[in-house]
Specification:
The chain is of the alpha/beta class. It is built from 8 helices and 8 strands; from the N terminus they run E-H-E-H-E-H-E-H-E-H-E-H-E-H-E-H.
Length: about 240
């Protein structure tokens, strides 16, 4: 299966066009957050989302925590997907399908340990996908994404294996480590921000190298899966 790539922290129509031209499957548009990079005013998010051509998905990252506020934010900007960056009350998550049935919902899980696995059953019935990140939602100033930190991919691999939904992997990814991340965690897709910026602007060369690394890993995995097994020497010379 082809690994999807979501480029987050898109800051302008020009960056959106660049990411799409280099093969991005989805773009992340960051709303107001307590911390972290790439935050945009809702008016600019609306303009960028309207400009992005199908089938590229637009993800609104919202820090809202109630179903009504999340739905209102998503409807206001017109993105195709809402990415919920806080560990919201599962009862609020259960209300969202009724409020925004036509908008895809992705729940972020901040991987701080194996307890992340216990959140699968809380959120899976109400969402279309998970995204594993390295935030610290309980920090004095909550970190809800864009940290540039790598978390424990062993936990991510266990999460992917247990999840009934597709899983995106985020957190400190770049061209130099994404191959290892894909080999260990085997996610549906990957998501990145700081790994393709110099220092804050989207860097075409870095994104190009990242896309090439993802493609190389996919091709090498597919080749390994179809490579014929060596003949059993004990079978040599025997009639077919």
């Amino acid at each position: 299966m082809r690994t999807r790539v979501k480029v987050c922290c898109i800051s302008s129509i020009a960056e959106a066009e660049l990411a799409v031209s280099l093969g991005a499957d989805a773009l992340g548009l960051v709303g107001a957050m307590p911390s972290g990079p790439g935050q945009l005013a809702d008016d600019l998010i609306t303009k960028i989302a309207a400009h992005v051509p199908p089938p590229v998905a637009t993800f609104l990252l919202t820090s809202e925590t109630s179903a009504e506020a999340i739905a209102a934010h998503a409807l206001k900007v017109g993105a195709s997907t809402v990415q919920i960056v806080s560990h919201i009350d599962p009862a609020e998550a259960a209300r969202l399908p009724r409020l925004i049935p036509h908008i895809r919902r992705v729940q972020v899980i901040h991987v701080t340990g194996e307890d992340a696995l216990g959140l699968i059953t809380c959120y899976a019935p109400h969402n279309h996908a998970f995204l594993l990140d390295s935030g610290r939602p309980s920090a004095p100033t909550p970190e809800l994404g864009g940290t540039g930190r790598v978390h424990d991919w062993r936990v991510s691999a266990a999460f992917v294996a247990a999840s009934p939904l597709p899983v995106f992997l985020a957190g400190g990814l770049h061209a130099g480590n994404v191959g290892d991340a894909l080999a260990e965690a085997r996610p549906y897709g990957v998501d990145l921000c700081s790994g393709v910026r110099s220092p804050v602007d989207l860097d075409a060369a870095k994104l190009g190298r990242f896309m090439a690394a993802v493609s190389w890993r996919r091709c090498s995995t597919e080749a390994a899966s179809i490579r014929p097994k060596p003949a059993d020497p004990r079978q040599r010379g025997r009639p077919g």
